[in-house]
Amino acid sequence: MDGIGADTRAALFEKGNGAIGGQRSCIWSSPEGGCDIVIGKQIFCNRSLNMKSIVAVGFDMDYTLAQYKPETFESLAYEGTVRKLVYDLGYPAELLEWSFDWSYMVRGLVLDKKRGNILKMDRHKYVKVAYHGFRELSKEDKVATYGNTLLRDSFDEPDYALIDTLFSLAEAYLFAQLVDFKDKNPGKVPKDADYSHMYKDVRAAVDLCHRDGTLKQMVAKDPKRYINEDTSIVPMLKMLRESGRATFLVTNSLWDYTNIVMNFLCGLKPSDGCSSSFDWLQYFDVVITGSAKPGFFHDEIRANLFEVEPESGMLINTDNGTPMAQVGSTSLRLPLKSLREGCRIFQGGNVGHLHKLLSIESSSQVLYVGDHIYGDILRSKKVLGWRTMLVVPELEREVELLWQLKDTRKQLQLLRIQRDHIEDEIHHLKWSLKSGETDDASKEKMFSELDKLQSQGEEVRLSHQQAQRECHQKFHKVWGQLMKTGYQNSRFAHQVERFACLYTSQVTNLSLYSPDKYYRPSEDFMPHEFDILSI
Questions:
Q1: In the annotation, is 62 catalytic?
Q2: What is the pTM of this model?
Q3: Residue 194 — left, alpha, or beta (φ > 0 → left; ψ -120 to 50 → alpha)?
Q4: Of the listed 2, 7, 36, 60, which one is catalytic?
Q5: How far is Cα 194 from Cα 175, in angstroms, rounded to an integer?
Q6: Is residue 7 flagged as an active site residue?
Q7: Read out DSSP for 290-318?
Q8: Which residues of the chain fall below pLDDT 50?
Q9: Half-sphere exposure of 309 toward its Cβ, with a 13 Å CA cutoff?
Q10: Do 193 and 185 form a contact (C-beta atoms < 8 A)?
Q11: Binding residues for GMP
Q12: Catalytic residue among 7, 36, 62, 440
């Protein structure tokens, strides 16, 4: 939105009652000829993208097509991790009595493993909010720890952990609990582990849950309990395919779990006595399971590509996707003929295999939709040059709140202007007093005025801080606005801006727009640029 002033942006936004530039953003597929797309469902653009140039659209599954319910799935992940800590890693049984607040942590936070701190930073990596466990650090403590260094900390691995996926929220919450537990009960932590070691144990426990299938077995038994139903997924996939695009799925989940989840998402139920259905495959050209992203995006990484026989889950050797005869046999073992004529299912491989299977001539012809800044978006864009769309479920509520709080933001802006004006007057008076060019009577008057201004300035400062804190807590009681940290874009917003061509709250928002739409950033309302004080 470079070149457009804050007042102009606000006027355009208000004129359109949530639309862009006073024009209606219409639902492309609406039978009534289009109606306004509510702002929480809109697709926001960082870099121009002409969908006419896209020949293939790909999707991640977990947290992209499949949106998990935090109150059930994250709680399941938390409980499984706690049990592994107790029964496999020697932590005290009292951890089993702990409870999980799934709404406490947010994406974009950084864990300081060595110090046991949880941080929220702005785009310049300045720490603006910090907690030690669940205890907020004072401004002085923050500056002493993170602000008084000659060299700026990168805040990256191995000393820090980035909370950049929704699945990471449970482990971040558990880490904070363990920090508090260690501080109060130092002798109860196994081998007197330090904060960094405790984080390592949490990660190990999470990995154990994945390896033994604890989480996915529970989800497979009752998908409806853990995954949000979305009836727009099938219409979206149909729209893309009918527009002439190839569609593909690349997921780290293996075939058995992928099939269960996709059947649920597509509203399909097993029939004719079969334990599973494969009808959902009609909406894809290629499905790659067990992809081991982000390594999958590196063409130079040699990874065997196996074709999956859907009925049995058996893996068939391939030569870059072409089936190979088994040793001692002259015939090829092929998956079901009906499936081979449509979607093909694989495990492993790398992006080079995918490009060959889809006959992709240029990586810029691919749009990939995912939820993971590093695992999906950064690697696919930076390494390959794919066009990218990031799914940010939290965005829907955030932009709706921005609109609802427009009057509060106006008041905050007025208080900010008032503070700046008083500070300017104070600096002017102090400079005049230092100059020594005034008589005693004038000096006495100026000192009196200075005292009055300083008192007034302190009063306005406190009012502004209180109003700002109250507004901050409307978004999240602890961490505030997802896309902002104070007046600056948050680190998360900065990453979205750098690596995502498009971003939106739900993958199915794609179905609200023409499949040939030309997305342009110049006039669009961008949540991360819409400063909380800019109206």
A1: yes
A2: 0.83
A3: beta
A4: 60
A5: 12
A6: no
A7: S--TTGGG-TTS---EEEE-TTT--EEEE
A8: 1-34, 272-273, 328, 331-332, 336-340, 524, 528, 531-535
A9: 12
A10: no
A11: 62
A12: 62
